[in-house]
Amino acid sequence: GNSGGPLLDAEARVIGINSAIRSAGGGDLDGGQAGSIGLGFAIPINQGKRVAEELINTGRATHPVIGVTLDMNYSGDGARVGTKGSDGGSAVVPGGPGDRAGIEPGDVITEVDGQRVHSGEELIVKTRAHRPGDRLELTVLRDGDERTISLVLGSSAD
Fold it and tell me: Which domains does the chain have, with CATH numbers?
């Protein structure tokens, strides 16, 4: 008889990390539709590894946060902090990392740790490459004046 070998039970685990979603604005006026634009970014392998380990160990992953709402329609250079949050409240979460560091609504973040930031998405990606508790040096433009702000990243679980 033909006895086959043991069946191998191979289980593959794949982790997908959604680095940034940008909502495409569109109202009824122009007949357009709102939706999401999937923005693909390469992320550092150690970030993927950290997220994977957190998911395995705790069942959920945290990511670092600045605690501000960005104005994703800002077309200038840098990442602009909004004037209002998505819930209509402040764009800077009271008591959050950005608030503690002295970030104000309308500030434009132009550099993270000496590296230029050209958009809100780029700031999100640069932030996500760190872990909660890391300290970032941010260059902020406010009323035409540049200042350096030291910020300790919070956690999305807070």
Answer: 20-155 (2.30.42.10)
Burial of 109 (0-12, 13-18, 19+ CB in 10 A): buried
Residue 108 CA to residue 11 CA, distance in Å, equals: 46
Distance CA 68, CA 140 (A): 13
Length of the chain: 158
Give the CA angle between residues 100, 83, 43 to the nearest 5°: 70
Q: Quick check: 67 and 154 in contact, CB under 8 A?
A: yes
Q: What are 155's strand-pairing partners?
A: 64
pLDDT in tens, 38-76: 555 566 667 777 777 878 888 877 889 999 999 999 999
**12-16: which pairs have CB atoms within 8 A and are 24 or more residues apart?**
15/48, 15/51, 15/52, 15/55
- Please say whether the dihedral angle defined by the alpha carbons of residues 141, 142, 145 and 151, taken in this order, is positive or negative: negative
Report field, pTM of the whole predicted structure over 0.70: no
Q: Is 131:152 a contact under the CB 8 Å cutoff?
A: no
